[in-house]
């Protein structure tokens, strides 16, 4: 029987100055990869350094979480940017986080775009190619995380770098495989048991049910859980327990 494997990732390090977001220390006890904000949508140098240290202490793999330059909008508002601008901002942010990793004798494992940049690159081939090229030019050994079936995954493969197809436990899907926009009331799944059922379906069968009832094919290499929800710690603990009970091996892609 084939062993089912899955990486659990979470967006972390999103505090900024005196403002605090999420329960990073608690969430790090349950995930296998951390996507750490690089200062454009959240995070600051001290938070980046602290989050890298906390992840390393728990053996959690490090990833850069580059965004559009939008602190006020938390990186969730689309911007009219060129492919060259996207290349530059991704390269800049990856280098910044890697500096903190190297200072602590650690290395980055992956890059996962954040928010609007992630969603734009999922459907825009030119932006996806710019991100993949920035990752490749910085370090060909890095893994590019992207929405399963998206332009970002295609761009990474075409660039000759490793990719990890990402799925979501607490987000609903559209028939084309995209995530339901957060502006819609049915974009999030709040019931933990329903989230678990969705994840197990994606891992075991490679499909997820869209909001219109369509069965959408997905590849599940890495699963995103959100650390900024009020019940994030309880959710992470319950999800990890359920996956392990189901026989799913949880570990980072490089481990």
What this model shows, in words?
The structure is a single chain. The protein has 255 residues and is α/β, with parallel strands linked by helices. It has a domain at 4-170 and 219-228: TIM Barrel, CATH 3.20.20.370. It is built from eight helices and ten strands. Helix 7 packs across helix 8 (232-245). The longest helix is centred in the middle third of the chain and has 21 residues, at 83-103. The protein is globular, with a radius of gyration of 17 Å. The mean pLDDT is 94.
CATH homologous superfamily grouping of the domain at 4-170 and 219-228 = Glycoside hydrolase/deacetylase
Portion in beta strands: 15-25%
Average per-residue pLDDT, rounded, comes to: 94
The secondary-structure element order is EHEHEHEHHEHEHEEEHE
Number of strands: 10
CATH class of the domain at 4-170 and 219-228: Alpha Beta
Q: List unreliable stretches of 5+ residues.
A: none
CATH architecture of the domain at 4-170 and 219-228: Alpha-Beta Barrel
Q: Could you give the order of strands across the largest sheet?
A: 1-2-3-4-5-6-9
Treating each run of at least 4 consecutive H or I residues as one helix, how many helices?
A: 8
- Helical proportion? 25-40%
- Can you summarize the main beta sheet? 7 strands, parallel, barrel
Radius of gyration: 17 Å
Structural class: alpha/beta
Alpha-carbon distance between the termini? Answer: 21 Å
List keywords for this structure.
single chain, 255 residues, alpha/beta, 7-stranded parallel barrel, 8 helices, 10 strands, 38% helix, globular
């Amino acid at each position: 029987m084939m062993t089912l494997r899955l990486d659990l990732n979470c967006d972390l390090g999103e505090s900024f100055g005196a403002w605090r977001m999420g329960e990073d220390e608690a969430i790090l006890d349950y995930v296998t990869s951390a996507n750490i904000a690089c200062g454009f949508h959240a995070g600051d140098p001290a938070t980046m350094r602290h989050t890298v240290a906390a992840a390393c202490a728990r053996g959690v793999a490090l990833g850069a979480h580059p965004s559009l330059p939008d602190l006020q909008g938390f990186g969730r508002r689309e911007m009219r940017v060129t492919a060259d601008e996207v290349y530059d901002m991704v390269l800049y942010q990856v280098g910044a986080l890697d500096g903190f990793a190297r200072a602590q004798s650690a290395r980055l494992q992956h890059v996962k775009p954040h928010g609007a940049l992630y969603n734009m690159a999922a459907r825009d081939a030119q932006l996806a190619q710019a991100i993949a090229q920035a990752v490749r030019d910085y370090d060909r050994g890095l893994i590019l995380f992207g929405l399963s079936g998206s332009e970002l995954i295609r761009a990474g493969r075409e660039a000759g770098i490793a990719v990890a197809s990402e799925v979501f436990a607490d987000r609903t899907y559209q028939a084309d495989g995209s995530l339901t926009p957060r502006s819609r009331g049915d974009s999030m799944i709040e019931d933990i048991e329903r989230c678990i059922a969705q994840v197990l379906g994606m891992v075991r069968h490679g499909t997820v049910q869209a909001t219109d009832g369509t069965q959408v094919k997905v590849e599940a290499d890495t699963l995103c859980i959100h650390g900024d929800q009020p019940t994030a710690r309880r959710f992470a603990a319950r999800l990890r327990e359920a996956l392990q009970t189901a026989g799913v091996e949880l570990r980072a892609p490089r481990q």
